[in-house]
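Throughout our pipeline, every protein is held as a single compact record rather than as scattered files. The record that follows is passed on verbatim for readers who wish to inspect the format.
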Amino acid sequence: MRTIDVAERRNRLARRHAVAPACRVGDVVDAAATVVCLHGTDPATIALSAWARVDGFDVADLDEALYVDRSLVKHLAMRRTLFVFPRPILAAAQAGASARVAAAEERRLVKEVEAAGLHDDGRRWLDRAMEEVVAALADGREATSSELRADLPVLEGSMTFGEGRSWGGTVSVGPRVLTVLAARGQVVRATNDGAWTASRPRWTSMAAWLGEPLPPLSEDEGRAQLVTAWLRAFGPGTEADIKWWLGSTLTLVRRTLAEIGAIEVDLDGATGYLLPDDLDPPEPVDAWVALLPPLDPTTMGWTERGWYLGPYKDLLFDTAGNAGPTVWCDGRIVGGWRQHGDGDVQLQLLEDIGADARAALDAEADRLTSWFGGIRILPRYPSPLSKTDVGLDR
């Protein structure tokens, strides 16, 4: 069994994820492909993840890929999370992850509307609601959730949640129907009514948006393509890493690893996996630094993160497991960053990384400040560190 040490894992990360400056890629589609897909839950993260991987990146390039070329597509997939997928992997995501999410969301919504007393037969209501939404968007019409609710009475109604709790409230059933249809691959987030820092999607038919239906794949085919893509980008990784990323079961992960011929490797005593044609060590990467946004795929891509996160989990991840902005040096996280009230990027370093690395990070902070051009973003998932002045000396 080949042994892969932490140094090689960090070297692979730098090259495969295009986060080392010398390894950056040419455009936003390639940036997404380097990490299989970009996280899309926080809209600003999409652009900032691309900025970190593409020299000269401009938001207009992302808009063109998303809304003109449609070479990138926002889609609900693994772990009921919104991602931005390159077109070639979209069908695999639908078959290997999204379909299972859709089935779970359908069961949940049927149960909840019946419990709320909205519909006696939740299954019948949901089938009719989905049919009417699909018909309303079939010709390529784009509509907001509010516009669809106004046009389709079947989407009326709301349910309470967290009753008596500080986080409780009400939720309309209309957006929940769109969530199911999105996970089924029938509708898609089309153009955005807001700026790149906001998510105000207009919905349309997936087939109309792409110009063709998604190619049909079996769940096994889709899962095999997803695991192969993950290993190509994130490998080596453990069964636990893949299970978490895919949002699947350990049984299915093990079966898929066997089906694609993944090779066992030793990760300092733990068993990891690589693709059979990916066993050779990559060329070393020169010293590098990077600033990555909240929920960046490089920060979030594994569940066993000690080899690059070190002792900083409680400072950089919230209690729900969402990563805030991170500072990287030679393949490991050494701190976080935030924006000052005037928009300037501030570093919060948690250790001494040496004068050369600090100078490189200061230059990156200046580069990002210039790119923001006075725009200040408010991360949906700020890190605990960013709420303090720990490590702040800039």
The chain has a mean pLDDT of 95. The radius of gyration is 22 Å.
